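Students often ask why we bother encoding 3D structure as a string. The short answer is that it lets us treat folding as translation between two languages. Here is a chain of 274 residues written in the first language.
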Amino acid sequence: MMILAGCGNRQTEANERAACEGKDATPKESINACTKIISSKDPDTETLSYAYLYRGISYDHLGRAGEAKADFEQSLRMLPNNALAATNLGALHGKEGRFTVAMQYLDRAIQLDESNPFAWRNRAIALERLGNFPKALEDINRAVALDGADHLAVAERCWLNAVTNQKLDQALSDCNLALATQPESSNILNSRGLVYFRRKQFPESILDYDAAIRGDPSEPSSFLVRGYAKRAMGLDEEGAADIDKAAQLSSEVSSFYATIGVPDEVQSVPPGSR
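And here it is in the second language, the structure alphabet:
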């Protein structure tokens, strides 16, 4: 969607429009350009809606969530069929843990535009956080089908297949693809660690959790499943230490993993096969 600025000569208008949309502009430059458009004389409703939208995106990039939320809401009030505003507002609520509210906006965004992979991906994340893994998988598959280059969607599909213990070959391929663009991502390494654990490739699982913990030593699940993998390798004391560390970090993490069948499926590897 192109914004038509309401004042100035054509070149200035074009420059402001491009900067507002974030083209060759820093977030601060984009905010300034969008503010100029918003403050210009009698811009039309669509112009204003998209100016608020793009300014909100730039605020979000700068971590200014309150201002981003206000701009997304204003964009949607001015143009109720602005699917991108609904998508970004839903994504912002999701990042802040309001997944039920996020779902309302993301449902609306998808109703308005089913071709937006960002909406499908963010709704999948919200559904996952709400515990609806089958529906989350449906949504993330739509997101990847629409944009296979979106490494965040590919990483989310890896995680969801690992959680539900299905399509583990696809899950491994997805995590490998995502790690090719973010090789030090603790989240993706954590996901691939679970994939390897499900595949009973315990040494590989431990290596991935080692790397995940180096990047983020505050994530309890990395210690927990690494502990289970060590225990499966016969490293009982080391495994117990990791499991205890996970419990110190979170009193709930082991309960979640128990609900998805971890570590109930684990069999210790035969002696001498380590």
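Translate back mentally: Residues 1-8, 268-274 have pLDDT under 50 and may be disordered. Keep this in mind for the problem set.
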